[in-house]
Amino acid sequence: MAIRLFITGGTFDKTYDEISGRLLFKDTHVQEMLQLGRCRVPVEVRTLMMVDSLEMTDADRQLVLQNCRAANEERIVVTHGTDTMTDTARVLGEASLPKTIVLTGAMVPYAFGSSDGLFNLGSALSFVQALPHGVYVAMNGRCFAWDDVAKNRELGIFEPRR
Amino acid sequence: MAIRLFITGGTFDKTYDEISGRLLFKDTHVQEMLQLGRCRVPVEVRTLMMVDSLEMTDADRQLVLQNCRAANEERIVVTHGTDTMTDTARVLGEASLPKTIVLTGAMVPYAFGSSDGLFNLGSALSFVQALPHGVYVAMNGRCFAWDDVAKNRELGIFEPRR
Amino acid sequence: MAIRLFITGGTFDKTYDEISGRLLFKDTHVQEMLQLGRCRVPVEVRTLMMVDSLEMTDADRQLVLQNCRAANEERIVVTHGTDTMTDTARVLGEASLPKTIVLTGAMVPYAFGSSDGLFNLGSALSFVQALPHGVYVAMNGRCFAWDDVAKNRELGIFEPRR
Amino acid sequence: MAIRLFITGGTFDKTYDEISGRLLFKDTHVQEMLQLGRCRVPVEVRTLMMVDSLEMTDADRQLVLQNCRAANEERIVVTHGTDTMTDTARVLGEASLPKTIVLTGAMVPYAFGSSDGLFNLGSALSFVQALPHGVYVAMNGRCFAWDDVAKNRELGIFEPRR
Questions:
Q1: Given CB 3.0 to 4.6 Å as the disulfide criterion, which of A39, B118, C46, C66 pairs with A34?
Q2: Is the pLDDT score of A26 beyond 80?
């Protein structure tokens, strides 16, 4: 059961730049994380963009959608910044593709020792194998349908919409 | 959807002892791992034993079974050493409890920087929420039914039985 | 041989804030680092400030100097942001205190897995014990006298002045 | 000021073997540690052996001595298991070479997240630059002359002899 993994950036992949002292995007850490998890499911990784999700445009979201539609795989994981993850989930969800798509990310960059990234990646790759077609957000052990999830920015957690 | 998590020890929880220079069991790392993963699913953790799975007896396996049967939760994760994980899965599987039970573990102790433990824990907690009743082994991104899995000890991986 | 350790902040102690997605100062990591290094030299730690060294004022530097002067210990380590570490070293150096003072820091926050902080802390605590009175900058295995060191901001390294 | 670094193995360099579930020697981690510390002092690394120090023979110690004598560098760090570090220090010390030699190691393997190795390496590379000719043991922030040090095996610390 091959899985397609699309990378869009987000906290997940931010790196500390020693020269500027700032958090930047360089290469993705996803391959390294799959190795650390000793992942034995075939995962085809492709980087679509490397952006902070606050800067993701409508065109960017359409690009993600296009790639999900065009992918040969029926099961797709998308790594994404948390701030607008639910917006992209909505764009994908409304397209009603005959696929299982799981968006995930991290509250803390993987490059930090204290990151939830590896936990979330293991989670997303599992939900995507087990769930029926649909679009989901998998964060911190929970999985939400795309039309019933919101990020609580004060608490930094995802929760059902009210 | 509350999840019960039973700890039995295994590589997952081995710790380096500075005085003896050996790998021992002290406290479990599972609570720390749930915190690192910022796990937002309610998980009730209980340590049943702390053993190397090569030393797990039939009585130990019956104890695991008893606890799975007695648990209020319908969804149960069991952390377990990899060497005899499939044996315990068989004992649980043959009991045909009306529950979803996922066994998981790690190839490398969590206390090592290079552990797959956090990835596997995220994975097991996700499969247990998404799969129908039954007993499963979740390791390194894959999930196997209890009656179709074996550990390949030469390669150190789990695979379907032949 | 008791050592006094003054904390001023800097990259060393920056932490990722999950809510804002930014690098901030919270508590210092120095105690945790001393524990990790299983440091057996008595070290008295005191936080003087928690600032980015680009924002350190003349008054701040005078405060550091005052504290170095007033300390009972003859051997003092100061953790400091790298950008103006040499400026503070100059203020301390020109005061010609009868003490050995070593400034150190990190190119990457300790909270990142890839930090040089622990290496530098081990180094600074060693140079401060072994060197004669004077003010020094210890970074990345090298030790410079306060009046012969500059930070090369393009390369992100410390080097002798030319 | 070039430094020679001889590797002999010890806890420092032990690695967890996923297949056997045991601590073994594979490659040294020293190069990786020097990179992590962003070490800017020229260090010439050479692996002499990869052994548990409890298994180090007299011939092994003579080999270390020979290499210290033959090295072009006047400043030498030797990584070593902690159990017999003071024995090797004695062999080197009694040879009275016109060099500064510092032995160091770790209480916990570097491959563990909780290792003191990086701290000790930073420390040893600093003491070796700052101290006069002689043979020393540098562990956990302290530095001992070869003829005034013993390992307290119950506490797992080094201390002056009584």
A1: A39
A2: yes
